[in-house]
Amino acid sequence: MSPRRIPAATDAVERRETPLTITVDGEPVSGIEGQSIAGILLASGRRAWRSGRSGAPRGVFCGIGACFDCLVTVGPERDVRACRRRARDGDEVRTQARGGGGSEL
Amino acid sequence: MYGTRAVILGAGIVGSACARELARAGCATTVVDRGRPAAATTAHGEGNILVSDKGPGPELELAQLSRRLWPQIVAEMSEQAPGMDDLTEWDPKGGIVVATTDDGARELAKFAESQRAVGVRAETLDAAALAAAEPYVTRDHTAAIHYPEDAQVQPAGAAAALLADALRAGATLRTHCEVHGAVTRSDRLTAVRTSDGDLIEADIFINAAGPWAGELSTRLGAPIDVRPRRGDVLVTTPLPPTVFHKVYDADYVGAVGSSAEDLQTSAVVESTRAGSVLIGSSRRRVGFDDRLSVEALSAIAAKALRLFPALADVPVMRAYGGFRPYVPDHLPVIGPDPRLAGLWHAGGHEGAGIGLSVGTARLVRDLLLGRPTEIDATPFRVDRPAVLGRTQKGRAA
Amino acid sequence: MTRHVVVVGAGPAGLAAADAALGAGARVTLIDEAEQPGGQYHRMLPEAYAAARPQHLHHGWRAFDARRRRVLAHPRCAWWSETAVWALERPDPAEPGPPRVHVLRGPVDGGGRDRHTLDPDALVLAVGAHDRVLPFPGWELPGVYTAGAAQALAKGERVVVGDQVVVAGSGPFLLPVAASLIEAGSRVREVLEANTSGTLARGWGRRPWELAAQGGKAAELAEYGGLLARHRVPYRTGRTVVEARGDGCVEEVVVARLRADWSVVRGSERTVAVDAVCVSHGFSPQLELPLAAGCALRATSAGEFVEVDGDQRTTCPDVYAAGEITGVAGAPAARVEGALAGWLAARGDRNIASVRRLRTSRDQGRAFAARLARAHPIGTGWTSWLRPETVVCRCEETDYATVCRAATNESTAAPRAAKLATRAGLGPCQARMCGPTVAEIGARLQGPAGDLHIEGLPPASEHRRPIARPIRLGDLAAGSGTTATSDSNSRTEESSS
Asked: What is the DSSP string of B82-103?
């Protein structure tokens, strides 16, 4: 059942959770305020959301903005590093395919 | 000529193309470079093979010759060694020139008409045809001409393929070998002294040092006036197919022909095989100053957006700059040096050297073998005021 | 005139630099891409988490928290969070000085971010490092993470990458990563240090008095060791993950024994079922900004770092460097370097006792870095676990055979020609991941390139990225407007478009 978010109730840092919802390719996905888009995707059970040149699946690799594997489109903006971008309630996230034939700019 | 010893100084695309022609013609050919092949100007351009930006005259003739040769050479190289077309990334994608003002439209129409008169294919596109050919180009245009003969290669790959073919034909390569000076005997260049501490003897030496041709020719005692003219290119992240031809602003022709010292920009936009869009171009006369100029990059971006407003949200992930070999009269220098027997020059192509390399090499071969040349080579002769005139003070520019 | 010091990076080194520069009387602009200071080491939980006990996840929280509050509240400090330095523009060689700093302020990678320029009197670069991961078959599978990713997710937003995890690579950093996974509730199957016990003993064993100076670091590591023991997590040396396998994501890893040079002992392979694997073979300093500023690098056995003198000065006038970009020695050493750099960048008195103490401590940090590099080298035999089809460049999916072919063909061997021919390093990460690997393979196959200075043609470097962070074409086109020079007042906004 990995990956996942540590439940707030058992989290030793004693924190709060304010829910938010983003959409991923139109489908609602819930997370909590303060999370990165990558964190929300991972915690919702998605380990891969982008496809590379060969079509192979990719998700988070470096987690700190250096590898550019986790790129997503947020609203009108393509190539946003999901591991660095803080999610906002209502963000419309679309996954990207590097092969990309026929998809829109 | 069989057995003539030829030394080519510079392993960029012009030197590689010359090496291929001479080795195949039976010369004992050696290519010498102070670094490694295709590492300097050749690897810092866009890989243009254009006829569209040249008006009637000797440079257009050389471009047309080169354009005829390129597909033949790519086919010959692929026969020799599979994979060479992959390395070259030869793509006869065609060019589209777009004007965005009424004046620009008039100038472009006149320019295209003059080109048609000398055999250039230049097809006027109406708004619908332009939108079909380039769906993301601005609707805010006043004229567009399609040049189906324009093509593109991956420049370092194309140079590597030419050099590899030369080596297969018997040429040899010496890297990390810098030429320090000349050995002459009764006004003839008979050898060059190198950083390896030895002499390389030959019957002819071809200066193919690109923007450093002026410096090299000075070391050899026969200076020519070739200067660096800086250019910058922006590279976007890989995109879905967005730009299908080489698309440029009608201003580009004016900027190419200009001799201004200060920053000139015009939009040149095209995709690479991997999906990135290359965005040029700028022209600055700043010597060999390799510092990044945000002003230049911003100006290039602004011009490109006028042509492709849809690219506004696309990230630029890299910029690179290089130095074009610039001759004050904007014509290449091809042929023997009248002051020093045994020394030849092949260069000064400014931003067109990738495309013109193969035609230049063919001229060098035919001139050397005493054969009739396919086009008139006299406009490119070394003995002209722009090449020999200002060499004493000019190189500091 | 108050000196204006711009500090890039608000991790342990940058925060210390800002603190010291403020103490010396300077006006400081502290820049970081994150929303909060701390860097990777003190990566903070989001404010929205409203954590009552953040210190649970940190070593040295109290000192960090105090410094953070002091710096951010200082009247002479402008804290520019969510700010990316996307370019540095060198001044005319006739007027040497720090480069002009071009920044974008706003959400990461967003369009329409505000463009600003800063013209500081001194620049302190403290931009840190990221994991260096050597390629291995299957490393591009989802579920393979850098060790830093696992830690950032656990520490920064309480997301755990897997339930059955193997941590592998080299260096003491593997221990805190394993610890944070355990803390977050993962089962860490094993921690694998690629270097043999002999290499570790030789590296750590000599001159133990040097270690005493880094006592804080040693105690921290000992604590992690204790945690691993309590959770019965085996720490094995001379072993590593040589392959990740799975259908669409990692399901198992192949673990093999290594010789001292990291060559694989054939026949020693075994598989371990996992749902995540975290790997780090060392660190890659982020050198694009130092290079853009014109700073010289120095080559070491652990890779290239920024060359600095005894004052943390780079070879570029009024540009200082601190932290992991000068050498990897951990947070305590980075703090000391930062403090020294910030104080001297602000032209603080160089002859006071506290500066002498900082220098001594900094020298001990450097000794520690050298020791770390000796104990945890990257062996040359690692290429033995590659296959011809193993992906080397993750972005462009260039494989090992292609990289070798380009490097051994004399027509394409120049780094730039090879890059264009193979596309390794040309993708979105701009060689941040594969650059050192491709350079290492190339150097091995070709021998050293030799020093050649050509006017207008700077030597090829896998770290050169003149556009240091992507900028949207529309934002680049928008221009940067007017530029204010630094002056004596304490404005926080210099100029904006």
From this structure: TTHHHHHT-B---EEEEE-SHH
Q: Is residue A104 part of a domain?
A: no
What is the total residue count of chain B?
Answer: 397
Cross-strand bridge partners of residue C42? none
Establish if A77 touches chain C: CB-CB under 8 angstroms.
yes
Fold entry, domain B5-73+155-226+329-380: FAD/NAD(P)-binding domain (3.50.50)
Distance from the Cα of A39 to chain C's closest Cα (Å) equals: 7
Which of A79, A84, A95, A96 to mutate against chain B (most B CBs within 10 Å)? A79
Contact C149 A62 (CB under 8 A): yes
Dump strand ranges (E) for C307-452: 319-321, 391-393, 398-399
Query: Do A105 and B239 lie within an 8 Å CB cutoff?
Result: yes
Residue A3 lies in a domain: no
CATH superfamily placement of domain B95-148+228-325 = D-Amino Acid Oxidase, subunit A, domain 2 (3.30.9.10)
Contact flag B292-C470 (C-beta cutoff 8 Å): no
Binary contact (B156, C473; C-beta < 8 A)? no
CB distance C323 to C41 below 8 Å: no
Q: Residue A27: how many CB atoms within 10 A of its CB?
A: 9
Min distance C260 CA to chain A CA atoms (Å): 27
* Residue with the two structure tokens 């040589």: C242
Which pair of structure tokens corresponds to residue B233? 């290119």
Total-model pTM:
0.95
**b/e map of B340-354 (b: 16 or more CB within 10 Å)?**
bbbbbbbbbbbbbbb
Per-residue pLDDT of chain C (497 residues; tens, 9 = 90+): 799 999 999 999 999 999 999 999 999 999 999 999 999 999 999 999 999 999 999 989 999 999 999 999 999 999 999 999 999 999 998 888 999 999 999 999 999 999 999 999 999 999 999 999 999 999 999 999 999 999 999 999 999 999 999 999 999 999 999 999 999 999 999 999 999 999 999 988 766 556 666 667 778 888 888 899 999 999 999 999 999 999 999 999 999 999 999 999 999 999 999 999 999 999 999 999 999 999 999 999 889 999 999 999 999 999 999 999 999 999 999 999 999 999 999 999 999 999 999 999 999 999 999 999 999 999 999 999 999 999 999 999 999 999 999 999 999 999 889 999 999 999 999 999 999 999 999 999 987 666 677 888 888 889 999 999 999 999 999 973 433 333 333 334 444 44
Domain ranges of chain B: 5-73+155-226+329-380, 95-148+228-325
Which helix (DSSP H) or strand (DSSP E) does residue B265 occupy? strand B264-271
Tally C-beta pairs within 8 A across A and C.
177
B276 contact C CB<8A: yes
The distance of C17 to chain B (nearest Cα, Å) reads 27
Min CA distance, C79 vs chain B (Å)? Answer: 24
Interchain CB contact of B315 with A (< 8 Å): yes
Task: Find the CATH number of the domain harbouring A54.
Answer: 3.10.20.440
